[in-house]
């Protein structure tokens, strides 16, 4: 499949890995928008949040457990933001489900 993040999972494209297990991969964003900016993705190809189903939704709980552990390790005790962009109007540029985790600075609201 011609998917950038599937290629990262397969090791065909290098990434700066933070965490990996049999289900998920976390790696630093190549174009960071905050002092800490990493992505957590399922290894299974799920195109976007609209494709979460009763059959695959367990991975979402696991991703949020991984995020909780990583923000603790990275000492983002003052807070952080989790972002999922879905679809063209949602600003998604890579069609493989991913959660951005941003921290290390104050976040504004509403997002752009
Ligand atoms: P989105 O726009 O929500 O689909 O987010 C895609 C993110 O992937 C962007 O923040 C990009 O900077 C990031 N990105 C694109 N290519 C790579 C790569 N090779 N390694 C790490 N992050 C990437």
UniProtKB/TrEMBL annotation:
Signal peptide: none annotated. Residues 4-112 form the HIT domain. A motif (Histidine triad motif) lies at residues 96-100. SUPFAM superfamilies: HIT-like (SSF54197). PANTHER family: HISTIDINE TRIAD HIT PROTEIN. This is Histidine triad nucleotide-binding protein. It comes from Clostridium facile.
